[in-house]
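Sample intake sheet
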Amino acid sequence: MSFMIPGDVMTSVAARGAGAPDTGYYKAKVAAIKPHPTRKTSRRIELDFETGFQTHGWLNSPYDAQGNLLPGLTEQQIKGMVGAIKAVFLSAGYTNEQMAEGVTQEWLIGREVYVEWHNGKDLGSQYGEIDGYLTPERYEQYMEQGKKPAIVADSTPEASTSAPASTAVGAFAPPSGGGGGFKLPPVPNSVVR
């Protein structure tokens, strides 16, 4: 035997040639969520696209691992951060009922999510980016309609997109007194994906 590559290494990389896909809507699996080395609110979400392409985006949480509110954030920042994270959980198929007791990042690991991807060439940039997360129902609707993101779609009314799912923020009130911690629930077993 001339070499042996460990399985976790082999499965953690994209095959050469699995470059960034064209702008569009894609299924992706959440491979990992890692804390930023210096920013307490930032988490790197690593995604494996159905095409073999791998990329990452950023999530910001105003809460730490124990459910304590981080100091120094405004109500608007808190709502924005939680709203953006909620879009990812909705994209992963979770419901408000399932999220009613709280959520953890472990709920997302290995889950399929649906993204609006913008290729770098359409952004006039070297790198592409995730523009937003879609619910499974919205993704299926777009696939049936042959819809394209507005950045590459023609000017017909059917081609325009609505606001990204990440802007859908429900009623939210941060706990008073800056947190205080709460017991986080386990990942629901009743979700089928």
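Comment: The beta strands are 24-35, 42-49, 54-60, 112-118, 129-134. The radius of gyration is 18 Å.
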